[in-house]
Amino acid sequence: MLTPRERVLTALKHEEPDRVPLGLGASGASVTDDVYFKLKDYFGIEGDVEPFRSGHGDNIYDPRVFDCLGVDFRHVFLRSSLDFKPPVNEDGSLVNEWGVAVKKYGRFYEWVSHPLAEADLSDLDNYKWPKPYTGQRQRGLQDTVQEYYQKSDFAIASRSPSRGFFDLGIQLRGFERFMTDMVLDKKFTHKFMGKLLETIIGFYDVLLEQAGPYIHIVETQDDYGHQNSLFFSPALFREMIKPYRAELNAFIKKKAPQASIFIHTCGAVSELIEDLIDCGVDVVNPVQPLAKGMETKKLKERFGGKIVFHGGIDLQKALAGSKEDVEIEVKTRLRDLAPGGGYILSPANVVQDDVPVENIVLLFDLARKYGQYPIDIPE
Hints:
CATH architecture: Alpha-Beta Barrel
Distance between the termini: 27 Å
Oligomer: single chain
CATH topology: TIM Barrel
Largest sheet: 7 strands, parallel
Structural class: alpha/beta
Number of domains: 1
Strand order of the largest sheet: 1-5-6-7-8-9-10
Number of helices: 14
């Protein structure tokens, strides 16, 4: 029987371990705070954990919950800056470090301001970009990652310390304006993307300066698709986003050459997977199976030897459905994605509070039961 770390590393090499590795707690593949507290109560876990950030759906990382579920990972992360106190607007929204106001509506956080919507080229030099090297963001990081590496047998992944280029573009400029920028104002967009790259690299530099030698997966994120399509053409991605994504990946590889690079990108992104591979991505998440063109069997046939799939378990219907739905889903994704290795099973996004806690527990129980290699699950 392999250790969790050996299991994950074997899967990352596109080889079959003893069973499919199980993931949870990753960027774009964790649980909301509401679900976390339900799981904590379900398992009878006492004592609070300090949130590592604020203004997101999932702000708490508690290894005790993941131990109860049998997850094969530990995650490390940068903490919120001690130098930045989010201003609170009259409507209750919080202004994040990027200058974007964020407000919670029901279970979701929404961006309610776009501070660079009217900016021109000169404004980009004068904008108050986040300062990655300030605010003691590394506090506790080195001790934590060394303890995980030396005293545990878990695989270690780093949570993404920043949103990605497209996500930040639509936050700072607004969706319609940024989409227009990429087509009609390429000079502005390239300078804007350069500013984003400089700042994002700063966050990864701070993270990997201490954690880089110990990490097995470095996580990044950027949402390029919705349920039925990409947000833009593959050609526009290659022109306006891919070069910056490639430069970021090259920087990460320089700081942590042994690590695999993970990207969380939602929706119908099958047309970009070859480009993601080309610019240095090793692991793609969340593999949203009900999105157009994301049929897991076809993805495995096309890309199975080239990229590792992380996720795949449908949240839109199956995990929020019956116990029978959960079992069918687990069997289907294992049958499609697990043979030959290269698959880490996880929910296909952050688990929301419409998913019964019992279904989450069942998911991981079934994954251990049916995920033993060689995979042999009858139709």
